[in-house]
Amino acid sequence: MKNKVYIFFLLFLLFFLLGCKTDKEVSEKKELEVFSDFENYSLIPEKFSYKGGNISPVVRIRNIPSETKSLVLIVEDPDAPFKKFIHWILFNIPPFDSIITEGISKNSFKLEDGILQGLNSLGEYTYFGPNPPSGTHRYFFKVYAIDTFLLEDSTLTYENILKMIENHIISYGELVGKYSKK
Fold first, then answer.
1. CA distance 37 to 158
2. H or E element: which one contains 6?
3. What's the pLDDT at 1?
4. How many CB atoms lie within 10 A of CB 33?
5. What is the pLDDT of residue 30?
6. Cα 139–141–144 angle (5° rounding)?
7. Where are the beta strands (DSSP E) in 94-150?
8. Domain locations in the chain?
9. Cβ–Cβ contacts within 10 Å for residue 69, how many?
10. Which of 36, 79, 103, 175 is the most buried (most CB within 10 A)?
């Protein structure tokens, strides 16, 4: 009986160790590359701001892992006065099309190609351009490659989406732009 328990323990340990990834394997995972019409940590052109008409910028994504089922884009302002302000949420973005075109956002839950918009901090399905009350704010364009599709649910918010993708993230990348009122 002791031998059976010992063998079972060794087999369990072997399967556990084979399933674990080393730190090297995790660190070698390619990150998504995210680009737009502005450089990382540079100023966002005014046409993509609230003042410029809330035109959503082009977002280009490279290094998408082959096992990706869909992409999620979240644009947030962590410098907002009271709490993080969510400017835009797109999800169920097809991974084979690595370009989100300029001006794609409309005040609509459903966009073309199966892309869906989540609710921003204003409770709207749209891109809300930078509009800081004062000073210079940072705007993070965060892109997640995930191994699933999210439910077609028009009530999804930032918190819901983060919770839903938590154990499904394959890769991640971000682009940071800055904006201040003139």
1. 25
2. helix 2-19
3. 56
4. 16
5. 60
6. 150
7. 99-100, 116-117, 136-146
8. 27-180
9. 15
10. 175
**Rounded mean pLDDT for each run of 10 residues along the chain, 182 residues in total:** 49 42 43 96 97 96 96 98 96 90 93 94 97 96 98 94 97 97 78
HEC secondary structure over 21-75:
CCHHHHHCCCCCEEECCCCCCEECCHHHCCCCCCCCCCEEEECCCCCCCEEEEEE
The contacts of residue 82 (CB under 8 Å, 6+ apart) are none
Residue 169 sits at φ, ψ, to 5 deg, of -80, 125
**Phi-psi region at 63: left, alpha or beta (left = phi > 0; alpha = psi -120 to 50):** left
User: At residue 160, what is the residue type?
Assistant: N
